[in-house]
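lol ok so funny story. i was supposed to be doing the assay writeup but got distracted and ended up predicting the structure for this chain instead. priorities right. anyway since i did it might as well share w the group, maybe its usefull for someone
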Amino acid sequence: MENTFWSKKVQSTEVLDTSRKEKFNENNRKLWFNLLHIRSNLKILEVGCGSGHFTNMIKRYFSSCQVYGVDLDANHIKFAQNECKKSNIDVNYQVADVKNLPFEDDSFDIVFSHTLVEHLPFDDFIKEQKRVLKSGGKLIIMRVDMVKKNDKPFMYLEDEINKVYSTFNFPQDVKVCGYLEDPDMTMQRLNQYNFKKIKFSYDRIIYYMPDVENKKVAISQIEKNYQTKLSYALFETERCNVDAETKENLVNILKSQYEERLRLLNSNKKIFDFQSSLLITISAEK
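and the output, tada:
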């Protein structure tokens, strides 16, 4: 039986994909590639690849690399495979559990994950990744520090949006981030697993700040931001069994917010709203 728990109960593939495309984009790709230690002719695996955006970006710009992605959620993998076909990109995607990876020992130069380590016990998270890494290969663990968010959102209609969400009956039985820990503890655990050259960095990813960008980039940021919010709204209205009228109301408010932000941009009225993520990256060598 297919596992679709995450995409149906926690975060749809569309929500995940729009969010990742917003944060990892054409304008900041060099920063991400540097953090992931990407260079030509490597064999690379992403565990918990979700919609495949990270792996597709890598393959698009480093065509000589062999790129693989695994995820336990079958809907995520189907989406990733379809995106590959549409873009004519060759990435090997498989439904697989990080606790039982379908690869031989010493297979990969780089094994990485993004927002995965916080969802399962560390021993389950790390054992197979270490096994499939080559000697001297790089392990890269990424997650977002939600405590240190520092955003200035566009506030037009934000109260109205929050008011609609306040009427939702969100499921109480879905638990995530049950193994979240401070970076120093993760580094200690890697040390206990005999990883070498363990390093840590904080990087502020500012992915939305249209008033300081050229017009083309600014419009792209506003549109991606809207698509992320819209995907989230559609997922939550379905997950919470929201009636059609409330759903339509929420969608219309989001559209009005998006149109007003575009109007202000085109009128050269600067708001200097921004959104960002504080990215924690831990790298180590086998």
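Residues 74 and 123 are 24 Å apart (CA to CA). The longest helix spans residues 215-239.
back to the writeup now i swear
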